[in-house]
Amino acid sequence: MKNAGLIAAGVAGAALFTVGAGFALNAANSPASIDGAALVETANAPRGMTQAEMNARIADERAAAEARANAKIACEKERQEASNKGAIVGGVAGAVIGSNVAGNGAKSEGGVIGALAGATVGRDIAKEDHRC
To answer: Is the dihedral of CA 120, 122, 127, 128 positive or negative?
Structure first.
């Protein structure tokens, strides 16, 4: 039979599709995905807490998490800006030093090599000085 390999591959593919679809359906119908917010509300609610108090607590926690995320984003942006400035300053300084140190016939090459090395070192130093 010439098509035995194709038939076996088709059967294997159908079996994998069936298993994958079943897994996806089970994951989509799990209690956590149906109403995750309701589970969080009831699981973390201390005894005697009203629904309004619980909703206020959830809102406070979400606001705090959002504030932390915004602070992290701002810090990473400042770190990237510091890294860019360090690369520019290091590149300029490296180019000047490299062209001065290079021999008579290799001033341009010395400047390029110095700029690359200076930019790399300047960027790393600026990143280390600005931790998030």
So the answer is: positive
pTM of the predicted model over 0.90:
no
Handedness of CA 85, 90, 91, 97 (dihedral sign): positive
Q: What one-character DSSP code corresponds to residue 102? A: S
DSSP one-letter code for 45: P
Which mean pLDDT values do the consecutive 10-residue runs of the chain (132 residues) have? 48 44 45 45 66 92 96 93 93 93 86 94 87 77
With CA atoms as reference, report the closest residue to 39 among 30, 28, 48: 30
Residue among 34, 71, 40 at smallest CA distance from 58: 40
d(Cα 4, Cα 11) in Å, to the nearest integer?
Answer: 11
Contact 116, 94 (CB under 8 A): yes
- Gap between the Cα atoms of 39 and 26, Å rounded: 18
Single out the residue of 73, 71, 116, 77 nearest to residue 97, CA to CA: 116
Cα distances from 79 to residues 47, 50, 69, 73, in angstroms, run 44, 43, 15, 10
